[in-house]
Structure formats: C-alpha cells, structure tokens
Amino acid sequence: MIKGGAEWLHMDVMDGHFVPNITMGAPILTCVHKGIPDIFMDCHMMVAQPEKWVNDIADAGGALYCFHIEATSDPLSLITAIHARNMKAGVAISPDTPSNAITDEIGEKADMLLVMTVYPGRGGQKFLERCVPKVAELRSRFPEKDIEVDGGVGPKTIDVCADAGSNVIVAGTAIFNAPNAEEVIQLLKDTVNTAQAKLAVK
Ligand SMILES: O=C(CO)[C@H](O)[C@H](O)COP(=O)(O)O
C-alpha cells in the first residue's frame, strides 16, 4: 500500500463473515509487528462485529483500524473507541454501499475512508470502475482526509483512482505478480503524487 511516500502495510483481518472459512486475526498481526515494529499496520477489518476486536488489534500493534460501515449500527461510538486506543479510524464501504452512507459527521470524525473496488474478501478480483465516482464524491466533501481504494488496483486502473482523489492505494496482485514489483510501486506512487499535486492547485 502506498500513502504519499510512506510505506504502509495493509492487513486484511477476517472472521469468516465476508469469506466463509477464512480467518486471520490479531496473532498474525502480533508476529508481523514483532518482525517489522516500525511498519504502519493498516488493519482492514472484514468482520461481522467490528466493536469486538478493537482492543485485540490495538494490543497487536495495529496503527489504523478500518471497519465496514455495513457491519455496525453505531459508527461514531466505534470511532471514539478506536481513538481511545490510540489508533487511527478508517471507515470502509463495500461496492454496493453508496458514499452517502458516510455522513458528514462520520467522515469528519474518521481519519481515513476506504472505497472498496472489489467485493471484500479475496485478492485477484476485477476492478469495479463503477465504484470510482464514490471516491470523487468523498474527496469533494472531505478534501483533507486520506481516501483509500482497495481491489484490482494496478498500472491499468491507477489513473482513474488517483484522478478521482484517492491518495492511499492498496495493491496486491499487481505487485506480487509483476516481473518488477519496484517499478509498479514507483508507478503507483508517481501517479498518486502527480494527481494530488494537480488537485491541490484547483
Ligand atoms: O481486501 C482485499 C480484498 O478484500 C485485498 O486487499 C485486495 O483485493 C487487494 O488485492 P488485489 O490487489 O489483488 O485486488
């Protein structure tokens, strides 16, 4: 994942809700944190009850706790709980969730907004371009927030994401399958940085 020039590590945390039979949680994060203590762990909580795991993820070294708005009835209290554990709070929307599910109050209180460009669960899916207008809509309401895109993002799809205003990019397949991963990472970073510079002068 790329945010400006800094390196983040996007960790998918799952309880079997979004993808049956796949679980991955705090014990794995703890191991990663031990191995690379300085990495910023952005934890994407693809779980049914995001309220349940805030303490576990904070104890495991999570730096950002991103929950799905579809999975909670009280996003504002959840953001308060995440901040109380000194983590940044992210709010994710799945492809079928409109961007106005993130109200002005929620968006202002969150640190990052995540627009999923695939259905949550698996890497290697096709990028859903119909989700991109949601990035632009959120960017117009929240000019200062981090806006992340996740799913099918790579050299062929980065332009529309960056032009819409996304500044945090999750890329799995595009990097892991590339003959030269560093080149792809650099291209993604350069595209985002160029688009952000253009948006800043508008
Ligand atoms: O959260 C995810 C799916 O839920 C993955 O992080 C995401 O899809 C990245 O993988 P790829 O770049 O291969 O699409």
Structure description:
There is one protein chain. Helix 6 (158-164) runs parallel beside helix 8 (181-201). The chain has a single domain (2-200), classed as Aldolase class I (TIM Barrel). The radius of gyration is 16 Å and the shape is globular. The chain has an eight-stranded mixed barrel, surrounded by four helices. The protein is of the alpha/beta class. The protein is built from eight helices and nine strands. It has helices at residues 26-35, 54-59, 75-84, 104-109, 132-141, 158-164, 173-176, 181-201; strands spanning 2-3, 6-15, 23-24, 40-46, 64-68, 88-93, 112-116, 146-150, 168-170. Helix content is 37%, strand content 22%. Helix 2 links the parallel strand 4 and strand 5 (64-68). It binds ribulose-5-phosphate. Ribulose-5-phosphate is lined by residues 10, 12, 44, 118, 120-125, 150-153, 170-174.
Keywords:
37% helix; 202 residues; RibuloseP-bd_barrel; alpha/beta; 8 helices; isomerase; EC 5.1.3.1; iron; TIM Barrel; Aldolase_TIM; binds ribulose-5-phosphate; globular; 8-stranded mixed barrel; single chain
Fold topology:
Layout (H helix, E strand, L loop, with lengths): L1 E2 L2 E10 L7 E2 L1 H10 L4 E7 L7 H6 L4 E5 L6 H10 L3 E6 L10 H6 L2 E5 L15 H10 L4 E5 L7 H7 L3 E3 L2 H4 L4 H21 L1
Parallel strand pairs: 2-4, 4-5, 5-6, 6-7, 7-8, 8-9
Antiparallel strand pairs: 1-2, 1-9, 2-3
Ribulose-5-phosphate binds next to β2 and α7.
Elements, N to C (H/E):
EEEHEHEHEHEHEHEHH
Low-confidence stretches: none
**Helix count?**
8
Shape call: globular
Radius of gyration over alpha carbons? 16 Å
CATH architecture: Alpha-Beta Barrel
**What is the name of the CATH superfamily?**
Aldolase class I
